[in-house]
Amino acid sequence: MGMKAIFSNRLYKHKIDPNFVMSMDHTLRVFNQAKHFRYQAEVRELRGSKAKSSVSIHQRLKQRYGLNDYYANSAVQEGRALLSAQKELKNVYMRNKKEQINAVKRKIKATKARLTTLQKIKGSFVKGTPMFNKTSREQQKGAFFVVTYKYSTRLFYCAYDFEHQHLDVEIKHLKSRLGQLNFKKDRYEKQQTQLASKVAGVCFGSKKLARG
User: Would the pTM of this model clear 0.90, i.e. be above it?
Assistant: First the structure.
């Protein structure tokens, strides 16, 4: 595809008639007010906080702000484009939230599996016949109990130390982690429900207005 260069003339305020500058400033202010009103009016209708008007938004803008057809149509089109963009963003946010929920569910599943393994080992120690899962990092090597990590290994010389210094501590930690993960999953699911039912608003203006 070929490239097209479009030339334009730059205008400087101090080189233009002050009356013309004031006229442009007024036009832009009124147009932006109309655009904001057009967007907020439809948001209120979608939220159900205001009944849908029998008068078209185009006519309402002309009557409220004294605009001609050109500016009224432009405000309507820009408001429609902004609504469409918000809907697309909402879909993106929903997909991201779904991925977050699935990631937490995978962590919950792995944590439950690890907790079940340790609880079975703990139960075998209570019965007096220590038994270990072949795939777990905890194993018995002769008279010693070994916990193998990626870069280190812990060695326990008796069953009592292994049970109370490792098993009990790990089980307590995993139960706490499981509670935190379930809390996070519930929070994400509530956020997902809010995203599905909420009509998002827009803050017009600079970052200062958004922060305020």
Answer: no
